[in-house]
Design brief:
about 160 residues, PH-domain like
Length: about 160
Amino acid sequence: MADSVLYESRPSIKVVFAWFIQSIFILIIFFFFLWISILSTSILSGGIFGVDFLWLAASLSMALLIYLFIQWKTYQYKVASDGIYFSGGVLIHRQKFIPFYKVTDLEVSQNILERLLGISSLGFQTAGAGARNKPEITFAGLVDAQGPMEITHKQLKQQKSD
């Protein structure tokens, strides 16, 4: 694993709320189209707007919240003397490593919800990412993204001078 760990963290618990709101938004869109589909085929039976629908929505929301909390507990971020490490996931557990010599860009980003919660994401891009232009590793839910970013910049400069 890492030679010496320079930065180690987990995402803030606030990221669970951000993931939850984003997922609920997607579920609302899904159920809206389901509702339109039911209305357009005129198969509207008593359950879709009544108690059955509310129980379904509440059950899905609770299951989603539990899943996101468990996922949050598995995430671990490290910046070490040899590169960047990410580990986490529930259904699909991923472990990723990027050596510093492959890092081409660092990106700090915040969507509207993350700005309201005071968290941000730090992305590490590599040349091998191709045309998709997405970070190879993302540290989501950071309260202070400047800390690991400065450590990474320092390590990148040190690697280039060696």
